[in-house]
Amino acid sequence: MWTKLVASTQLNSYSQIPEFTPLKLSFREILPLVNVALIIHPGNGLSTRFWQQNWGLGILRHSNSDLYSFAIDINITLAQALRDWNRQEVLFNQAISTSGSALQQLDNLSQELLSFSLNENPDRFFWKLTTNGDFTVKSCYNLQKAYPRPDSELYNLWKLHVAPRIKLFTWRLQQNKLATYDNLIKRGWQLPNKCYLRDASEETKSHIFFNCPFARDVFTKWALKMRSPIQIPVPESILINPSINRAVREQVAILFFILWKERCNRIFREVKLRPEDLVTQLLHEWKRKIPSKLLR
Predict the structure, then answer these.
(1) Cβ(186)–Cβ(70) under 8 Å?
(2) What's the burial of 26, exposed, middle or buried (CB within 10 Å: 0-12/13-18/19+)?
(3) Is the dihedral of CA 200, 202, 205, 210 positive or negative?
(4) Which keywords has UniProt assigned to this entry (predicted)?
(5) pLDDT tens digit string along 70-111?
(6) Bridge-partner residues for 54, per DSSP?
């Protein structure tokens, strides 16, 4: 399996690793670390990923994160990106015109690419963690031990005693992968961005679950009902903070799920409930899904 890992590292892809081996998941987890330790001297640019790897300008997905969020193909090669750079409608979705920070990063990056050129030689890979630049299993293992898994905090979500659909929802929420209006606009949708719960603010993850007056009313009524000491608005890290009582985090996860359902019902069904109605739904879900011994 390690042979396949090394080969996939050189090819910048794990597509050749068989689905039934645990290596596929492991490689997905350590790939960000591998790219940090990998320096590429570009030749023809065919084996180098423009956004994901360090080929001379650092890892662009980090240094140009706003611009990266509008990229159509996040795995585009260096050769393809340079070839199509003057056809930016091919590289970025149209919503980029709404982001001043992304346009500024686009302009700065364009200036840096003016003096960059490729040649006919293949790309060369160098591993920073060894003196001769060759990859070794030991150095990669030590690298993985030295850094926590990028998503290690998210494992706290899977320990919650809530329905599987709520666990999956909170996992997507924590990574800002929900179809909120700001995310849809980044993907090229053309629609007005507004909050449907109460005010006219733009709908983002932070607004709809933490800052919206309606969401605050729901959490305030929940805190009074359950005599919870949690401050309102609840902190955005509440679901993955192990220092907070697990039962409290479970109830918050259910409330987030119910808030999202309420938002969707208002958009697609034109049905509106009061904050106290959502708290009642929480109690029903809590008593139905949580083992009775945990309610004592």
Answers:
(1) yes
(2) middle
(3) negative
(4) Nucleotidyltransferase, RNA-directed DNA polymerase, Transferase
(5) 999 988 999 999 999 988 888 998 888 888 888 999 999 999
(6) 39
